[in-house]
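Example 3.2
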Amino acid sequence: VQLVESGGGLVQPGGSLRLSCAASGFSFSSYAMRWYRQAPGKERALVADISSGGINTNYLDGFIISRDNTKNTVYLQMNSLKPEDTAVYYCSVPTLRVWGQGTQVTVSS
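Structure, written as C-alpha coordinates:
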Protein backbone atom coordinates (compact mmCIF):
# COMPACT_ATOMS: atom_id res chain seq x y z
CA VAL A 1 0.00 0.00 0.00
CA GLN A 2 1.42 3.34 -1.02
CA LEU A 3 0.21 6.93 -1.00
CA VAL A 4 2.19 9.65 -2.78
CA GLU A 5 1.20 13.29 -2.34
CA SER A 6 2.15 16.04 -4.77
CA GLY A 7 1.21 19.57 -5.69
CA GLY A 8 2.52 21.47 -2.71
CA GLY A 9 4.67 24.56 -2.94
CA LEU A 10 4.89 28.25 -2.23
CA VAL A 11 1.79 30.35 -2.91
CA GLN A 12 0.86 33.92 -2.10
CA PRO A 13 -1.97 34.70 0.30
CA GLY A 14 -5.29 34.51 -1.50
CA GLY A 15 -3.95 32.01 -3.99
CA SER A 16 -4.98 28.45 -4.74
CA LEU A 17 -3.34 25.05 -4.94
CA ARG A 18 -4.56 21.58 -5.77
CA LEU A 19 -2.93 18.69 -3.99
CA SER A 20 -3.01 15.17 -5.37
CA CYS A 21 -2.56 11.84 -3.65
CA ALA A 22 -1.89 8.84 -5.87
CA ALA A 23 -2.77 5.52 -4.28
CA SER A 24 -1.59 2.03 -5.11
CA GLY A 25 -1.55 -1.45 -3.63
CA PHE A 26 -5.16 -1.64 -2.51
CA SER A 27 -8.68 -1.40 -3.88
CA PHE A 28 -8.83 2.39 -3.87
CA SER A 29 -12.49 2.74 -4.80
CA SER A 30 -13.54 0.69 -1.76
CA TYR A 31 -11.98 2.96 0.86
CA ALA A 32 -12.69 6.32 2.39
CA MET A 33 -9.81 8.78 2.16
CA ARG A 34 -8.72 11.73 4.28
CA TRP A 35 -6.50 14.77 4.12
CA TYR A 36 -4.74 16.00 7.23
CA ARG A 37 -2.30 18.80 7.86
CA GLN A 38 0.34 19.50 10.43
CA ALA A 39 1.66 22.98 11.03
CA PRO A 40 4.96 23.58 12.83
CA GLY A 41 4.55 23.00 16.55
CA LYS A 42 0.97 21.80 16.20
CA GLU A 43 -0.78 18.46 16.17
CA ARG A 44 -1.92 16.83 12.96
CA ALA A 45 -5.45 17.99 12.14
CA LEU A 46 -8.16 16.56 9.90
CA VAL A 47 -8.90 18.77 6.90
CA ALA A 48 -11.38 16.75 4.84
CA ASP A 49 -12.62 13.27 4.18
CA ILE A 50 -14.46 11.50 1.40
CA SER A 51 -16.31 8.24 1.47
CA SER A 52 -15.78 5.44 -1.00
CA GLY A 53 -18.97 6.61 -2.69
CA GLY A 54 -17.74 10.17 -3.06
CA ILE A 55 -19.59 11.86 -0.21
CA ASN A 56 -17.24 14.50 1.12
CA THR A 57 -16.91 16.43 4.33
CA ASN A 58 -14.75 19.54 4.24
CA TYR A 59 -13.74 21.01 7.57
CA LEU A 60 -12.13 24.23 6.35
CA ASP A 61 -13.66 27.03 4.30
CA GLY A 62 -12.29 27.02 0.77
CA PHE A 63 -10.95 23.46 0.96
CA ILE A 64 -12.65 20.80 -1.13
CA ILE A 65 -11.81 17.12 -1.29
CA SER A 66 -12.62 15.00 -4.33
CA ARG A 67 -11.62 11.68 -5.80
CA ASP A 68 -11.20 10.03 -9.18
CA ASN A 69 -11.51 6.29 -8.81
CA THR A 70 -10.40 5.75 -12.42
CA LYS A 71 -7.05 7.31 -11.52
CA ASN A 72 -6.80 6.01 -7.94
CA THR A 73 -6.27 9.58 -6.85
CA VAL A 74 -7.72 11.86 -4.21
CA TYR A 75 -7.45 15.63 -4.50
CA LEU A 76 -7.58 18.61 -2.19
CA GLN A 77 -8.50 21.91 -3.81
CA MET A 78 -7.42 24.78 -1.59
CA ASN A 79 -8.69 28.28 -2.31
CA SER A 80 -8.20 31.67 -0.66
CA LEU A 81 -5.12 30.43 1.13
CA LYS A 82 -3.86 32.21 4.22
CA PRO A 83 -0.46 32.17 5.93
CA GLU A 84 -1.98 30.05 8.69
CA ASP A 85 -2.65 27.32 6.12
CA THR A 86 1.10 26.74 5.95
CA ALA A 87 1.66 23.09 6.89
CA VAL A 88 2.64 19.68 5.66
CA TYR A 89 -0.41 18.06 4.09
CA TYR A 90 -0.90 14.30 4.28
CA CYS A 91 -3.38 11.93 2.74
CA SER A 92 -4.49 8.85 4.58
CA VAL A 93 -6.53 5.69 4.35
CA PRO A 94 -8.00 5.71 7.84
CA THR A 95 -9.19 2.12 7.99
CA LEU A 96 -5.82 0.84 6.77
CA ARG A 97 -3.87 3.26 8.98
CA VAL A 98 -1.71 4.23 6.03
CA TRP A 99 -0.20 7.68 5.46
CA GLY A 100 1.64 9.34 2.65
CA GLN A 101 4.95 11.13 3.12
CA GLY A 102 3.34 14.56 3.01
CA THR A 103 3.70 17.62 0.81
CA GLN A 104 4.71 21.04 2.07
CA VAL A 105 2.41 24.00 1.48
CA THR A 106 3.76 27.43 2.31
CA VAL A 107 1.56 30.50 2.07
CA SER A 108 3.63 33.65 2.12
CA SER A 109 4.13 36.90 0.26
